[in-house]
UniProtKB/TrEMBL annotation:
Superkingdom of the organism of origin: Bacteria
Chain ranges of the HTH arsR-type domain: 1-90
Protein name (database record): ArsR/SmtB family transcription factor
Organism: Olivibacter oleidegradans
Length: 107
């Protein structure tokens, strides 16, 4: 049975979030990424595989090196999902602020 991955799985892990941060700035080779973490090269390869499966990175072969490039368009899914809750909490906090202001005036 094949596991279906999505962008939410990609950002669930702090190492993957750090990798996204690295490659968002500029394309980076796999060795440079691996050197930044205190885990095995195999673990980094698995993180990179998950990021690629989620559509957040593209890996290109350049000579003997594999270069990782960010594909951040998929992060819009997360932004849209979080935005709905942000709007919900902002409206609740606005209502609380109004309640507190009205309560302060009536004293």
């Amino acid at each position: 049975m094949e596991t279906r991955r999505d962008v939410f799985q990609a950002i669930a892990d702090p190492t993957r979030r750090a990798i996204i941060g690295m490659i968002a700035k500029e394309p980076v080779n796999v060795n440079t990424i691996a050197e930044q973490f205190d885990v095995s090269r195999q673990a980094i390869s698995l993180h990179l595989k998950i990021l690629a499966e989620c559509g957040l990175l593209n890996m290109k072969q350049q000579g003997r090196e594999r270069i990782c490039e960010a594909k951040l368009e998929k992060l819009n899914e997360i932004n849209e999902w979080v935005s709905q809750y942000k709007q919900f909490w902002e409206s609740k906090l606005d209502a609380l602020g109004k309640f507190l202001n009205n309560n302060k005036r009536s004293k």
